[in-house]
Fold this protein.
Amino acid sequence: MSSLHIGLDAGGSSTELLARASTESLSSPKEETRLQGDGANPERSGHAEAVGTLAELVGEAVRRHPATQLRSVCAGVAGAGSGERRQALAGRLHRALSEVAPRARVRLVHDARIALEAAFGNASGIIIIAGTGSAVFARTEAGTLERAGGWGYILGDEGSGYALGRAGLRAVARALDGGPATRLQALLSNTYGANSRAALVGNVYEAELPLQEAARTVLEAAAEGDAVAARILDEQTDALARQVAWLAEREATIAPQVVLFGGLTKNAHYVETLGRAVRGALPANCSVQPASCPPVAGALRLALREDPGREAASNAPEAPPVVSLCA
Amino acid sequence: MSSLHIGLDAGGSSTELLARASTESLSSPKEETRLQGDGANPERSGHAEAVGTLAELVGEAVRRHPATQLRSVCAGVAGAGSGERRQALAGRLHRALSEVAPRARVRLVHDARIALEAAFGNASGIIIIAGTGSAVFARTEAGTLERAGGWGYILGDEGSGYALGRAGLRAVARALDGGPATRLQALLSNTYGANSRAALVGNVYEAELPLQEAARTVLEAAAEGDAVAARILDEQTDALARQVAWLAEREATIAPQVVLFGGLTKNAHYVETLGRAVRGALPANCSVQPASCPPVAGALRLALREDPGREAASNAPEAPPVVSLCA
């Protein structure tokens, strides 16, 4: 009978699932299925709802592979918090999956863990996650997880969508006061009312528009040469690069290879600017590049590794990398 | 019969009342009463509660001056918003006072108006308000009100208690990541858990400790020579001084005299640093000094000026400045 292994990447706004059905033979064809569901951040939506979303996606994947046995599930969960909370959540997920997969191994890890796995497998390296928030993680040569940044929207998250958007709107406020003119004012006038004090204040404080949605406009204006927007982007990416440097200084046994994840790293100008800043902050032999595999591929790899039958049977060349999703 | 005039300064955390009982004769003795009540910000606590607080204070002042007739009330109200809202609030206040003072004139103005009156009377000048938030206002020679800054805690409020406190806590987060060491970490360890990531994050995001309460510590550390804290203070006061400069550039008919209001301006090191920044940003002939009269004294002056009987009777040397509260 074929085996089924499932990786999950549970984020705040959506959850990715990657399933692989395979026989033990390495030469037989593999079948991969990718599903997407709602966000499943237990800190935001509560444990029950997060677990419900994950279990539903797993159930759907199992239904699509009727002639398989689900052997292992690995979920990377954003905001799963400390070890204790994560364990409680893992127990809940295990119970929720007991019907569809009574014998499957269920593992729940920090979301950084699956991204590190996707980027470096077992090797050492550094990842930068730059989405609505931002954070830097590393895997040391001894395999421990280290972090810098990721302080949230009040205390930090430099270089994140929220920080870029907020800085852009602040620049607009300054322009309205008589400060440096910026194209951002015209570009944000429809969405944020950036042409008038009352409209801007109303949109930010009363309508509570998400500030991170202004980030795209800041990137656009910076790429077009707007000096104010370009300065914002430089300052923010420099601050994020500094976190990488601090982390690398703190731990000598981290390989100076950096992989970029997160929504912002789909923007070429952002990647170029952040890449320059990181190369400036690290030793000359460092490498910096956007991720070629999504975090969910790392989750699937961990799920494959988690399956004891599999290891025993194959006496194990390392589980082949998940390639279908990777560039 | 003696007349009673009342000024009110309604702020977010407390309301000040200043009452003066006097006869028409300028030479007769004046009696002043000062009362303090709860905050009365209509945007925060609602119109009904704000008006209730003001009416209660006025009633108490009237009871303390039984042999007088209340002739006029002027209230400076923080967050009274646009003209329309202010008018609705004024109508409500008028009705609330109709029992204690059926014939009194009731006026409700922007809180900046009473501070400008306290600082400059009818003359032109600039005020900086630096408390939990910050803002800059000016009265032009033509008597119109101009403003800069005051964008609230998300979009600005440079140089405010909130901005200083948040910057201090961000500096602590950076220090924990491996960035520049700062005495702020030790100084804020008891109150904000600044010695550990988990405690700091928990205090800011879960316990939602007010960030502005870290401002005093930032000022203390800056005064003691902590480089990180000193830089925060310089950056924040420079940004606030720039707002003053923009405002002065925008309107040529504003006298370059600056008076400082707000809780932060009770700190000598803050006043010194902000004063230096403002003098650096304005023409050489400018003056910068802390307020010698509280805003409520401006409200009382406006109340005195509001009384038509008074003007007609005295054929009017200008109402004498309120001196008892002023340095």
About this structure: The CA atoms of residues 21 and 202 of chain A lie 52 Å apart. Chain A touches chain B at residues 82, 148-149, 151-152, 154-156, 166, 169-170, 173-174, 177-179, 198, 200-201, 204-205, 211, 242-243, 246-247, 249-250 (CB under 8 Å). The longest helix of chain A spans residues 227-250.
